[in-house]
Amino acid sequence: MSRFEETETALTDRLRALKMKPDMTVNLFDIGVPMNAAGFSQDEILAVSPRSSRTRSSISFRETGFGC
Asked: What distance, in Å, lies between the first and last C-alpha atoms of the chain?
């Protein structure tokens, strides 16, 4: 599995853990901090989110930034 695929899977799992639904807004801090702790960088997470067909389904992301 590529690093992109690992990140995509982790992001999808995180969105499920947050019980995200279409048309909901998520604070990237709620995604970034746990994923960063799991070893994913901000660049990896942001590279996946706009391109991923699994995460793109009507979920809008509000960028607020988080530390890496």
From this structure: 23
